[in-house]
Amino acid sequence: MSTTSIDALMRSVPVIPVLVVEDATQAEPIARALVEGGLTALEVTLRTPAALDVIRAMSRVEGAVVGAGTVLNPRDLDAAMEAGARFIVSPGLTAPLTEAAIDRGIPYLPGIANAADIMRGLDHGLDRFKFFPAEAAGGIKALKALAGPFGQVRFCPTGGISEATAPDWLALKPVLCVGGSWVVPAGTPDLAAIRRAAEAAAALRPA
Questions:
Q1: Dihedral, CA atoms, 30, 45, 164, 33, nearest 10 degrees?
Q2: What distances in angstroms separate CA 37 from CA 31, 34, 60, 130, 193, one per listed residue?
Q3: Annotated catalytic sites, by residue?
Q4: Deepest in the core among 15, 49, 62, 199, taking most CB within 10 A?
Q5: Alpha-carbon distances of 182 from 19, 158, 174, rounded to whole Å
Q6: How many Cβ atoms from other residues are within 10 Å of residue 5's Cβ?
Q7: Cα 134 to Cα 139, 161, 188, 200, 202, distances in angstroms
Q8: Residue 67, SS3?
């Protein structure tokens, strides 16, 4: 697996929207609003029965790079790839899923919360991780402490991050992007509001 591809994805946007979409008919309009607002990397979580259909629909939107989140095992991985996912995000790091992602050659962003997780990832040749759950796992203070011994590692903190706190995370050198659900709130999508939120998020470039 090429780690440069996940690195390029992380550098392509400051915020990766974390999407929980219940209705696949809403998928294309949401994706279009996000892309028009400047957010092209979209993480569709496998938390709803519609998730795979959402990935298929969003993948039809020009400019959208659609990935699957909440991928827990190789079975989820294969289903997401079959639906068109171009990258994979997991809440944690396990050997079976990591080996499957490397074997399939798909960009992979596993979740880590401590030094042991990072060391297991490094053993597999990975150095790009999701720091999750970012706020609950100790916030910026914890990430700074973790980054110290692992100078080559870069992170996408996700979990509890808001539009207000995202700039503080993005100001950290080890942070390439953040994941956030605030761009597309739950409920009936307000496409104009989603586009405005995407524009604001896309402007949060790290210094």
A1: -10
A2: 10, 5, 17, 23, 10
A3: 43, 130
A4: 15
A5: 9, 11, 22
A6: 16
A7: 5, 7, 27, 21, 20
A8: strand
Instruction: Read off the pLDDT of residues 50-79 as tens digits, 9 standing for 90 and up.
Output: 999 999 999 999 999 999 999 999 999 999
- Per DSSP, the three-state class of 64 is coil
Q: For residues 159 and 165, give the distance between their C-alpha atoms in angstroms, rounded to a whole number.
A: 11
What phi, psi does 49 have (nearest 5°)? -60, -25
Residues of the chain with pLDDT under 70: 1-4, 206-207
- DSSP code at position 26: G
Give me the residue label for tokens 């590692």: 153
Residue 136, amino acid = A
What residues are paired with 155 via a beta bridge?
129, 175
In angstroms, rounded to a whole number, what is the distance separating the alpha carbons of residues 35 and 57?
Answer: 14
Contact 20, 186 (CB under 8 A): yes
* Residue 68 · residue 46 · CB < 8 Å: yes
Lookup: tokens for 35: 């892309």
Q: How many CA atoms lie within 13 A of 39 on its CB side?
A: 33
* Close Cβ partners of 3 (under 8 Å, ≥ 6 residues apart): 125, 126, 127, 128
For domain 3-202, which architecture applies? Alpha-Beta Barrel (3.20)
Token output for 104: 């399939």
Give the integer Cα–Cα distance in Å for 34 and 174. 25
CA distance 112 to 164: 23
